[in-house]
Structure formats: C-alpha cells, structure tokens
C-alpha cells in the first residue's frame, strides 16, 4: 500500500511538484468549471481554452519556452476572444456559441501555425498537452497564485455570480454588479485555463474543470456541497492520475483527465441523478 | 395632489426603428393600482422594460418622481433558470439586496423577516426546498415574497398570472391589494379582463399607442378593445418614417 501510494512522492521530487501543481489546479479550476457547467457554458470553456493558444504561441515565438511571455500572451488572447465573442453576440444576429466557435477555430489554427514557425515538434506537444511532470518553481508559483486569487475572487463574487446564473434579470434590476459578475467570471475562466494550460496543456485543461463538476452535479443537490464534492473529486483524480502515470509509465496529463473521466462515468451510473441511480435508491413513496 | 410617480413625455420605445410603444404621454399618481392591458404585441412588456431601463427610448422619455432604486420589477417567469441549485430561502432573501448588497451578511432580524414573508405568501416550511422542485405557482409565490422584501414604492409586474391556477392567482391578487393598501404604486400587465375589472380601479389600454387611460370601467369598453385589436396588428417592413410631434428630438 505504502509502496504504491506514497513512495513515488517521497522518492521523486518531480512527483511532489506534479502533485502540488495538480492539487492547486484542482482547488481553483474546478469550482470555476462547476459554474461553467451550471451556466450551460461547458463547451464555451473548451472554446476558450483553444482561444488562449495563439497568445501563448506568440509569446513562445518571441521568447521561446518562457513562462511569463506565454502566460501573459495566453491571458491577453483569452480575454480578447471572450470580449470579442460577447460583443459579436450582442451586436450581431449570431448567438454567443456560434461567435465563440468562429473565434476559437481561427485561434487554434493561428496558434498551431505560429508554434510551428519556430519549428520544434516537441514544443508543440508541450503547448498542446502541458508538462505536469516538469513543473519548475516559477510555474508552481504561478499556478498557486492563480488558485489563491480565484478562491478569494469567488468568495467575493459568490452572491452576484449565483444570481447572474439563475436570475440575471433580477440582478440587473437591483444592482450594477451584473457585468462585474459576468466579466469577472470570464476573466477567472481565462486565468484558470492558463493555469491548466501549463499543467495539462490547451487541449485538456478543460478536463479538470468540467469532468469533476459534472460528476458532482450528479451527486449533490445544494451548491455548497456540489462545489466541495467537485473539488474532492478533482483532487483525487489528480493524485490517481499521477500514480497511474508513474506505475504504468503513461503520460500524466491524459491520466489525470481520464481519472476524472472515470469518476464521471461511475457517477453517471451510480449517482442519484445518474442513469441507474434513481432505481438503486428507490424508496417507498410518501402519503403527501 | 402630490408629484406623479411616473410622467410619460411622448415616450416611444421599440426595436429596429419599429415602435412598440408609440408617443405615450400621461401621468401615474402615487398609490395607483393600474392594470396595463392590450393584445399580444401591444408593447406592454416593452413599456415595463423601458421603465426599468432595459430598453432605451427611440424618442421622448419619462420622469420618475421616486429614486430609481425604489422600483421593483417582476419580469415574466420564463427568465429564471429553474434547474440552478439554489434554495427557496436563499432566492427570496435576495429581496433584501438593498440592505445587504452583494457582499453583506444577513442579521437575525433579516432571517426572521424572510421566514415571516415566506409564511405570508403561503410557503412556510419550504425554506430549504430547491427552486427546481417548486411548482409554477409556488415559484411565483416565492418571487412575490422576494418582491415584498424589496420593499419598493413602485412595483412593476409583467404577466404575473400566466399559467398560474386560479387559487394561487387569487392569493397573489390579495397580496397586490395589500400593497395598494400600503400606499405603493402597482403597474401590472394582465390579460384576464374579468379580474382586471374586479381588482384594478385603473387601467391603461395600449396597442402600440395609447387607446385609453383612466377608471377601468371607462377604459374597457368594447369600442376601445376593438380598436386595440386592429392597431396592434399593424406592422409593415417598409413603413414610412413617423412625423408626429416633430418638435421632439430623439433622445
């Protein structure tokens, strides 16, 4: 038991760093993913993660594999695409999903093109799939900072954000915080995607946001429990994925996302809100 | 006579240059209990949206005799996401927004006020229920409770009894009657003319433009209603530019 679960982390520093990184990511990105899910914006998160690519790629083109340049490039590109898509949705007849799809497809193409200008396939792989097993001090610090900022911002924005999710008309009626909640939330999405981009890569960053959130949605009925259980599932997926990667010698990023995927599939089958769950927990009906 | 709560000055609201509310003028006095009536597409909802600033005037405007945060607005029920995990208590407590804002906590007396208000609308014991588990009528009761906690002087209701059964409607109408007795001003968009006649002393009949405004019995005549039906259906893609009241410039 000890050999299997604990020894890899005691023995190897890169495993400890990977664990710290994926735990920090789970703590911040998963609650954001839950709000994306509840706002029916899951696919929007996916689109946004691709939108980050050309910014990060431009940073890479100018400065090589520099953490700062790629991070700032990614954040700027993500925010530009989010705002532009919102603007197009409001000012043209296209809905937000269509306008986002258009922007992110262009972004993805531009991103891959820019990275390949510099020429090394290994770097392209790094950008697309992240490098959770090679996190340096600066990357860890960045991920932890983004998570800290996210948790404080969520605590502060919680009430306006919840209202913005289920009754935006009421929020607009009583206060001017509606755009603050909406755009503040989008900025948090972009920040966490950049954080996920360094660990899991652009293509899979959304995995750790949405899969644990979807699993938790199937178990919990109240929002606070839902947030807590999604974070627990994400933390467990991070550890399980790293251990699988270590013992079975498979890439860590996909292993983490697949671990969260297994949690989702199990929940889908067993949870009260899932497929078989409602039959499993069937109890006699009440008088009234 | 005190200041009117709302004074419409040649107000025109609309979409894509087509007027939905056309050259509306008039005054609504404090404490009025007013039904806004008209056929579908008459601009009733647009009028309420204009009052809360969600739609900007194409021409003219209106003046409020009260601060803007003294308006409580109940849009049509379809605007709510029922599946969102939030409890009845939490949803209704948001009516205290003016006191607690986006970040403040609830004090003990606030919590008691929420419980008290829930009891008043007939939802005692439903505090921890998720809003997704409420029936349409119960959800509307919860929204009325939230509106009561907002404690505003002008209340705007957009088709509050759509798809609501008659018993719930009667309960909610008696709440509206209480607000009227407390001296609040109420504007409600309604379709049920029989109920309008019974509960609402005043009536504003619109069909894109003002048909009649005054005591309900004088407004809801068959001649007025027939005229409203004809006017609401007029819509031409290439209608000429309107030149009524050329002294008013667009806002």
TrEMBL record, chain A:
Where found, per UniProt? Cell membrane; Membrane
Q: What family name appears in the similarity comment?
A: Belongs to the ABC-3 integral membrane protein family.
Source species: Azoarcus taiwanensis
Is Transmembrane helix one of the keywords? yes
Q: Which UniProt keywords apply?
A: Membrane, Transmembrane, Transmembrane helix, Transport
What's the protein's topology in the membrane? Answer: Multi-pass membrane protein
User: Where does the chain cross the membrane?
Assistant: 20-38, 58-86, 98-117, 138-161, 181-211, 223-243, 255-276
Lineage at the top is:
Bacteria, Pseudomonadati, Pseudomonadota, Betaproteobacteria, Rhodocyclales
This protein's major location comes to membrane
Q: Which GO terms describe its biological process?
A: response to zinc ion; transmembrane transport
What's the protein name? Metal ABC transporter permease
Q: Per its UniProt entry, which superkingdom is the organism in?
A: Bacteria
Entries under InterPro entries matching the protein: ABC_BtuC-like, ABC_TroCD
Key word Chaperone present in the record? no
User: What GO cellular component entries does it have?
Assistant: ATP-binding cassette (ABC) transporter complex
Per the UniProt record, one Pfam family is ABC-3
TrEMBL record, chain B:
PROSITE patterns for this protein = ABC_TRANSPORTER_1, ABC_TRANSPORTER_2
**What UniProt keywords are attached to this protein's entry?**
ATP-binding, Cell membrane, Membrane, Nucleotide-binding, Transport
Under CDD domains, the record lists: ABC_Metallic_Cations (cd03235)
Q: Which domain of life is it from?
A: Bacteria
Q: Which GO terms describe its molecular function?
A: ATP binding; ATP hydrolysis activity
Q: Where is the ABC transporter domain?
A: 6-233
Name a Pfam family for this protein: ABC_tran
Q: Which InterPro entries match?
A: AAA+_ATPase, ABC_transporter-like_ATP-bd, ABC_transporter-like_CS, Metal_Ion_Import_ABC, P-loop_NTPase
Q: Which family does it belong to?
A: Belongs to the ABC transporter superfamily.
Protein's name according to its UniProt entry: ATP-binding cassette domain-containing protein
Query: Organism, per UniProt?
Result: Azoarcus taiwanensis
């Amino acid at each position: 038991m000890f050999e299997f679960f604990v020894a890899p982390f005691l023995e190897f520093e890169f495993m400890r760093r990977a664990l710290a990184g994926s735990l920090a990511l789970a703590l911040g990105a998963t609650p954001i993913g839950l709000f994306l899910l509840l706002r029916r914006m899951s696919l929007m998160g996916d689109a946004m993660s691709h939108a980050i690519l050309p910014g990060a790629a431009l940073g890479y083109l100018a400065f090589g594999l520099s953490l700062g340049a790629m991070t700032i490039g990614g954040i700027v590109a993500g925010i530009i695409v989010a705002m532009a898509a919102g603007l197009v949705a409001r000012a043209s007849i296209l809905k937000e999903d269509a306008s986002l799809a258009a922007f992110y497809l262009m972004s993805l193409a531009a991103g891959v093109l820019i990275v390949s200008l510099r020429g090394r396939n290994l770097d392209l792989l790094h950008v697309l799939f992240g490098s959770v097993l090679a996190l340096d001090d600066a990357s860890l610090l960045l991920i932890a900072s983004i998570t800290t900022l996210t948790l404080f911002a969520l605590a502060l924005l919680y009430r306006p954000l919840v209202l913005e999710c289920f009754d935006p008309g009421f929020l607009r009626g009583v206060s001017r915080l509606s755009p603050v909640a909406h755009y503040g939330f989008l900025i948090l999405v972009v920040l966490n995607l950049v954080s996920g981009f360094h660990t899991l890569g652009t293509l899979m960053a959304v995995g750790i946001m949405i899969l644990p959130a979807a699993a938790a949605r199937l178990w919990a009925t109240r929002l606070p429990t839902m947030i807590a259980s999604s974070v627990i599932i994400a933390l467990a997926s991070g550890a399980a994925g790293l251990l699988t990667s270590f013992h079975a010698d498979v890439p860590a990023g996909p292993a983490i996302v697949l671990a969260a995927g297994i949690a989702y599939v199990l929940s889908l089958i067993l949870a009260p809100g899932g497929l078989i769950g409602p039959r499993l927990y069937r109890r006699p009906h009440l008088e009234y | 006579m005190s200041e009117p709560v709302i004074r419409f000055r040649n107000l025109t609201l609309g979409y894509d240059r087509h007027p939905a509310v056309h050259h509306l003028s008039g005054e609504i006095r404090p404490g009025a209990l007013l039904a806004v009536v008209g056929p579908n597409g008459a601009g009733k909802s647009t009028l309420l949206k204009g009052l809360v600033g969600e739609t900007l005037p194409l021409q003219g405007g209106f003046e409020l005799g009260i601060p803007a945060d003294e308006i409580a607005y109940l849009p049509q029920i379809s605007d709510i996401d029922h599946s969102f995990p939030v409890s009845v208590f939490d949803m209704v407590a948001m009516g205290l927004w003016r006191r607690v804002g986006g970040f403040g906590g609830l004090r003990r007396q606030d919590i008691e006020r929420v419980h008290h208000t829930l009891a008043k609308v007939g939802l005692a014991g439903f505090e921890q229920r998720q809003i997704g588990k409420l029936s349409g009528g119960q959800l509307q009761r919860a929204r009325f409770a939230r509106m009561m906690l907002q404690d505003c002087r002008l209340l705007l209701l957009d088709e509050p009894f759509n798809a609501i059964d008659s018993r719930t409607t009667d309960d909610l109408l008696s709440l509206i009657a209480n607000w009227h007795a407390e001296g609040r001003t109420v504007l409600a968009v309604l379709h049920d003319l029989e109920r309008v006649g019974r509960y609402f002393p005043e009536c504003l009949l619109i069909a894109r433009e003002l048909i009649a405004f005054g005591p309900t019995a004088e407004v809801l005549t068959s001649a007025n209603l027939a005229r409203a039906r004809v006017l609401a259906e007029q819509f031409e893609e290439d209608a000429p530019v309107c030149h009524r009241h050329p002294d008013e410039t667009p806002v």
